[in-house]
């Protein structure tokens, strides 16, 4: 029975026109029932199927997807016809495919851009490393500005010496601060003993007053030294460091310029065919770009060195005068001159007990 049914089903064709509509089936009730029985309870063909229920009944129709050559359709067992599956589902699939393709293109574009950046960076690093090694072993030539390089060496040497002055001034501040604190404690002890020792009241009282006066003058001198240290620190750590950063950029630009210059010279000594001429033109363009960068940074270094020298002279003239006058007045015991020195340089001392500035002072 099953074999006869399968033979009938195999010889039947369900025509589908170009628009996906079903053709006219032969009006054979027994054939319709046989087809329904094959589709519902036929053997498993291990193929993906589309399942659809009837409009008004419980019967189901199964159509193997491998046999569908036109648009996807549902088969309705009750009405013996197929219904094309179109509309929202296919539109959503098409939209999802388009968005996925767009995201893939964007990702691919970003990857290509990063790859090109890495390629340029690696090519530039290779050229600069090659130039550096050649200069170290004396096989490559380098661009030298004797006057500018002499000024750069002077600046580096000056910075080292000023760092030494800054380190010693900070050590002096720490030691002197400890001494002032000791004098303050000693004065308090003398004052206390003056109250508890009637026979030595005057002697303890004199020493207490002396230590208190020394402590007051010491705090004034500490204010002057702290101002000196702060100004030197700004000059060394900010002004000089900023100029040295520009110098470092200039030296890197000089290395790149010499690397591309050497590359252009090597290409110029080679053959002059079409490929070589194209490479020479590209190298000439890169050489011009590096040359402009080198000359611009060289000009920046010259200007910064000039302004740094002027600023250094102005700052150090003021700070050295302050340091000398304050130290001299303190060790001479001239309290009035010491206070006048701080007024001359607009140095304001913090009141006793004010270890940190208030939030208004920090604004």
Oligomer: single chain
Q: Assign a percent range to the helix content.
A: over 70%
Using the CA coordinates, give the radius of gyration.
47 Å
Mean pLDDT: 76
Give me a quick take on this structure:
This protein is mainly alpha-helical. The chain contains eight helices and four strands, in the order H-H-E-E-E-E-H-H-H-H-H-H.
Outline the structure in words.
With 363 residues, this protein is mainly alpha-helical. Helix content is 72%, strand content 5%. It has helices at 2-11, 29-41, 88-136, 146-196, 201-268, 274-331, 335-344, 359-362, and strands spanning 49-53, 60-64, 73-76, 81-84. The strands form two sheets. A two-stranded antiparallel sheet has the order 1-2. α3 (88-136) packs across α5 and α5 packs antiparallel against α6. The chain is elongated. Mean pLDDT is 76; it is low at 1-28, 38-90 and 355-363.
């Amino acid at each position: 029975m099953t074999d006869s049914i399968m033979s009938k089903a195999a010889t039947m064709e369900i025509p589908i026109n170009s628009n996906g509509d079903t053709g006219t089936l032969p009006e054979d009730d027994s054939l319709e029932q046989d087809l329904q029985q094959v589709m519902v309870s036929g053997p498993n063909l291990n193929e993906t199927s589309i399942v659809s229920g009837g409009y008004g009944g419980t019967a189901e129709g199964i159509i193997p997807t491998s046999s569908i050559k036109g648009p996807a359709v549902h088969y309705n067992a009750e009405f013996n016809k197929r219904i094309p599956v179109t509309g929202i589902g296919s539109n959503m699939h098409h939209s999802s495919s388009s968005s996925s393709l767009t995201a893939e293109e964007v990702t691919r574009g970003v990857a290509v851009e990063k790859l090109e950046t890495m390629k340029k960076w690696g090519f530039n690093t290779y050229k600069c490393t090659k130039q550096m090694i050649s200069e170290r072993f004396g096989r490559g030539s380098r661009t030298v500005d004797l006057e500018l390089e002499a000024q750069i060496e002077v600046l580096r040497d000056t910075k080292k010496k000023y760092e030494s002055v800054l380190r010693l001034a900070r050590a002096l501040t720490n030691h002197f601060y400890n001494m002032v604190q000791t004098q303050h404690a000693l004065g308090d002890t003398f004052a206390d003993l003056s109250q508890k020792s009637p026979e030595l009241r005057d002697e303890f009282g004199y020493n207490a007053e002396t230590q208190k006066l020394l402590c007051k003058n010491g705090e004034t001198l500490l204010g002057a030294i702290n101002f000196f240290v702060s100004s030197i620190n700004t000059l060394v750590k900010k002004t000089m460091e900023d100029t040295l950063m520009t110098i470092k950029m200039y030296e890197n630009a000089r290395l790149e310029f010499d690397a591309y210059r050497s590359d252009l010279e090597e290409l110029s000594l080679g053959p002059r065919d079409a490929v070589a001429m194209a490479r020479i033109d590209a190298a000439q363009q890169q050489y011009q770009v590096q040359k402009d960068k080198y000359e611009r940074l060289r000009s920046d270094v010259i200007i910064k060195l000039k302004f740094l020298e002027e600023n250094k002279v102005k700052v150090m003239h003021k700070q050295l005068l302050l340091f000398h006058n304050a130290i001299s007045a303190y060790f001479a015991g001239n309290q009035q001159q010491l206070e006048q020195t701080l007024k001359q340089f607009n140095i304001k001392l913090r009141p006793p007990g004010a270890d940190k500035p208030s939030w208004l002072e920090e604004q």
